[in-house]
Backbone:
């Protein structure tokens, strides 16, 4: 956290915390837009870019995990064919459970980080 600024003005703080809170209304897309906008302006705002980048990656990872689980489930479904799905049902449940747990952790992380940014910590 050595790159994180110590004091932020109110608009910077709001945009930074909205990057984390966007998990509730526009995950992945809002932090990406905020990150790109904050870095590609005449005077880049490093505080917004820092938080938007962290929010983007913490929201993208569960999305990629979800896509991987869907691919694994589809692949095992195609591999099993007509033999029945009872043999691989435990794998599906395990993967879905892990995905839900990881998603919940990342969701909580984004909410907590948004609150921390609002409190200037």
Residues:
């Amino acid at each position: 956290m050595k790159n994180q600024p110590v004091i932020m003005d109110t608009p910077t703080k709001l945009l930074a915390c909205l990057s984390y809170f966007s998990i509730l209304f526009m995950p992945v897309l809002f932090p990406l837009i905020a990150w790109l906008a904050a870095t590609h302006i005449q005077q880049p705002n490093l505080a917004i870019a820092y938080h938007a980048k962290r929010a983007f990656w913490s929201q993208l990872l569960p999305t990629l995990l979800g896509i991987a689980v869907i691919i694994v489930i589809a692949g095992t479904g195609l591999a099993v064919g007509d033999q029945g799905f009872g043999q691989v049902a435990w794998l599906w449940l395990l993967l879905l459970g892990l995905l839900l747990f990881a998603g919940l952790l990342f969701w909580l992380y984004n909410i907590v980080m948004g609150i921390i940014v609002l409190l200037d910590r």
Summary: The helical segments are 10-21, 29-39, 46-80, 89-118. The chain has a mean pLDDT of 85.
